[in-house]
Write a structure and sequence with these properties.
The protein is mainly α. The protein is built from 38 helices and 4 strands.
Length: 613
């Protein structure tokens, strides 16, 4: 009975056609078929631009399939029967289903549940004879997603297939993907420039290389509006993919001119280089060399590097950024010496070219060429600040954190740029100025009268790039200037800093990098602010970071202040986690046990940090 019910549940998604009786026999009525065709209720109706679209009955069916997929399946047999029944409805009109929005979404969810052989059959029907139809489906806004989902299914391939039938199933899918790649190579210009087709090429590059990120339809983690690089997962690939990848990359490089004129095509070339760097490093070096040769040998004005033109172009500048990031030392040195040197400040002032300069500054940090690059950029630091290209300054600071030789020079240059170098009494004002990216006169509303007494101004105007700058400076070997400035802030300013989206990272970076003695001085200034910090979304995180790096005596001082507001902490949505993490109940009722636990935890943290170091 249970098996019968499963079969009925799965077969329930097999569409009953109009005119079928309860036994499943279709009633034949003369003229019905012609009438349905006239009404547009057949396998599809003519949509926009004459393209076939699913009829309303089919759309409703695939919508119900999606609802059934939401429910999930308890048994493997039930799932397999369901998939088979749905695919039987797709058969013969796969392209029409794939290019319909509802049908496309349903197929994208169904294909990961299919066997390799079933996916190969869907691809074979989508591609038509010898893959002739792949281009139309792949460049469709809905169909492209389906082809991508089918291609991603190869990630489950393994060389040691359990049965002969399973091996044949994978071989069929492999053959279809090779056919798809051949179609892409034959029509490479159309694919890489097409807004939808280019995504298929990028997915195909991942598949042929053997690494895969999350599907495009899945939400990416990270703050809203900020791009987060997807995490890639490696998988086994058939040996044929190794050779096909070489053929596809060669074809792309033969059309490298498209990458400098079309932003969509440029993204394909960026994916190619990134994937090859991860999976085919030798091939990547060859590709980088060929791409660089093209970009640096185009005609330009006499005495002007052609690369300077491409650096200022929205499409090609992104590709150059990737080339800089992935280049080996020799190629990077050649780019700097022959194309960037002497032009860095002008490029840093350009709205687009400043981004490749940032990538070059980051890549050069571990080489001697950074010293010359630093000396050139530092001459124009005030002009770069005035242009608002803070990414260049932040990256320069982050690179200096790696290269200790130029750290003092950068600090002194920043003090001069923010007008707090002279007189020396202004040094203690550097932290608010760096975080707000405002000069001394603007921040303190002063006329820069030398020797004048500064006015108390509440901490404000903390900005993202200012926060990033101070976080980079906090990694310098000599941080006494920043810590002295931090200790001059009032407790109210420290609370503002801890509760600010950008400032909280600054406070955490400065406290966690301080010595025990320096941390104690800062914590002394924070006394009386621990409770409002614990009740703040951001402040509570800073407080936890402080706690993790504190000694037992510092923890005891923090706990002593927090337990006085037990009711407030235990009822607050953020502070209650602090209460539990700091074990404050045990601090009140089992003090000796609490101290023993805290001592053991600190020793354990120190042991792990020593091992990692």
């Amino acid at each position: 009975m249970l098996e019968d019910r499963k079969r009925q549940n799965s077969e329930g998604m097999k569409r009953r056609h109009p005119g079928e009786d309860e036994g499943g026999e279709r009633k034949r009525r003369g003229g019905d078929e012609g009438e349905r065709k006239r009404r547009g209720e057949g396998e599809g109706r003519q949509g926009d631009r004459g393209r076939k679209r699913l009829d309303a009955l089919s759309v409703g069916y695939f919508r119900r399939v999606g609802e059934r997929l939401d429910e999930g399946f308890k048994e493997k047999e039930e799932r397999e029967m369901f998939v088979e029944n749905v695919l039987s409805e797709v058969k013969g009109k796969a392209a029409v289903v794939a290019m319909d929005m509802t049908g496309s979404i349903t197929l994208q969810r169904l294909l990961p549940l299919c066997s390799p052989g079933q996916v190969a059959e869907v691809l074979a029907e989508l591609g038509g004879p010898e893959g002739a139809e792949f281009k139309e489906v792949s460049c469709d806004r809905c169909g492209g997603h389906v082809v991508e989902s089918a291609a991603r299914r190869i990630s489950g391939w393994t060389e040691s297939s359990t049965t002969e039938e399973e091996k044949e199933s994978w071989d069929e899918l492999e053959a279809q993907l090779l056919t798809l790649s051949q179609v892409v190579r034959d029509n490479i210009a159309e694919f890489v420039k097409h807004v939808h087709g280019s995504h298929l090429v990028r997915t195909l590059l991942h598949v042929l290389a053997g690494c895969m990120g999350p599907p495009r339809t899945e939400p990416r983690p990270g703050p809203k509006g900020r791009t987060v690089a997807p995490q890639l997962t490696d998988f086994e690939i058939p040996s044929s993919f190794w050779y096909e990848m070489k053929s596809l990359t060669d074809t792309l490089l033969d059309n490298v001119k498209l990458s400098v004129t079309d932003a969509v095509a440029s993204a394909v070339f960026q994916t190619m280089l990134t994937v090859c760097h991860r999976k085919r490093p030798i091939l990547c070096k060859q590709l980088l060399k060929r791409a660089t040769e093209y970009l640096t040998t185009r005609s330009a004005a006499p005495g002007v590097s052609p690369l300077l033109v491409f650096l200022k172009d929205p499409a090609s500048s992104h590709l150059i950024e990737i080339i800089i990031q992935l280049s080996p030392k020799a190629l990077l040195r050649d780019l700097y010496k022959n194309h960037f040197k002497g032009q860095l400040v002008n490029l840093a002032l350009h709205a687009i070219a400043n981004f490749p300069v940032q990538r070059l500054t980051a890549a050069a940090a571990k080489y001697k060429m950074f010293l010359g690059l630093f000396d050139e950029l530092i001459e124009g630091i005030e002009a770069i600040l005035a242009a608002g290209h803070m990414g260049v300054i932040v990256q320069l600071a982050e690179s200096c954190a790696e290269c200790e030789e130029k750290q003092d020079d950068l600090i002194q240059c920043l003090l001069r740029a923010f007008h707090c170098a002279e007189p020396g009494t202004r040094h203690v004002s550097c932290l608010p100025l760096f975080m707000s990216l405002l000069t001394y006169e603007v921040y303190y509303h002063s006329d820069a009268a030398e020797g004048s007494t500064q006015t108390e101004v509440p901490l404000s105007s903390i900005c993202y790039h200012g926060s990033r700058l101070v976080q980079a400076l906090a990694k310098f070997k000599e941080r006494s200037l920043l810590l002295s400035s931090l200790r001059t802030l009032t407790p109210a300013d420290l609370l503002t800093l801890a509760s600010d989206p950008s400032g909280s990272h600054v406070l955490q970076a400065l406290i966690t990098t301080s010595s025990d003695k320096g941390r104690g001085k800062i914590l002394k200034r924070l006394e009386g602010q621990y409770v409002p910090m614990a009740c703040s979304r951001l402040g509570s995180r800073v407080l936890e970071a402080i706690w993790n790096g504190s000694t037992v005596s510092h923890r005891q001082s923090i706990a002593q202040e927090l337990v006085r507001s037990e009711n407030q902490l235990r009822s607050d949505q953020f502070a209650r986690h602090v209460w539990a993490k700091f074990a404050l109940y045990h601090f009140i009722h089992r003090r000796a046990n609490w101290q023993e636990i805290q001592s053991g935890e600190i020793k354990k943290r120190k042991l792990f940090s020593d091992i990692l170091a």
